[in-house]
Specification:
mainly alpha; 73% helix
Length: 165
């Protein structure tokens, strides 16, 4: 039976094993030297000690990193350093948002130009169609929707498209 490793990165698992072996060796235990499953319980106890040491070490390293951060901000006040950290994160976020807006503004302008061009083309085609409808010289006095004449059907559809009311 092997000692189950908690869910953690591989480098942390290796560190956990080294710490457990060092603690056991310092205490004179043969738990990591001896082979065999009868030593699993002892190894398990040393892993528990290593976990406790690593948890305390992590807290100390976090506190040290926070203190080091205050030095980087040239202040001795942890609260001031936290405020400065918060401000720099907000500044970076705002700069990113401004860059995104500038990029999107360019895209929006291009889309508006395409829309305006499509509307101009539509208006031109609408004008040409209206001109053709006004100049219908086919000789029909009226247009009947049930007319067998394909020309009449197309003219009725064009007129309906121009005047949707």
């Amino acid at each position: 039976m092997t000692q189950p490793e908690p869910a953690q990165p591989r480098h942390t698992a290796a560190l956990r094993r080294r710490v457990a072996e060092a603690l056991a060796g310092h205490a004179g235990s043969k738990a990591f030297i001896a082979k065999g499953h009868e030593w699993e319980h002892a190894r398990s106890a040393w892993y528990a000690h290593a976990d406790a040491v690593l948890a305390e070490l992590k807290r100390e390293l976090d506190a040290f990193a926070e203190y080091e951060n205050t030095i980087n901000w040239m202040t001795t006040c942890l609260s001031c350093a936290r405020v400065l950290d918060s401000l720099i994160r907000e500044t970076e976020r705002a700069e990113w948002a401004e860059a995104e807006l500038a990029e999107n503004a360019g895209i929006l302008q291009a889309l508006r130009r395409q829309r305006d061009q499509a509307e101009a083309e539509r208006d031109a085609l609408k004008g040409h169609l209206q001109y053709l409808l006004d100049r219908d010289n086919h000789g029909h006095l009226y247009i009947h929707p049930d007319s067998p004449c394909d020309h009449c059907t197309r003219l009725a559809a064009a007129r309906a498209a121009l005047d949707p009311s």
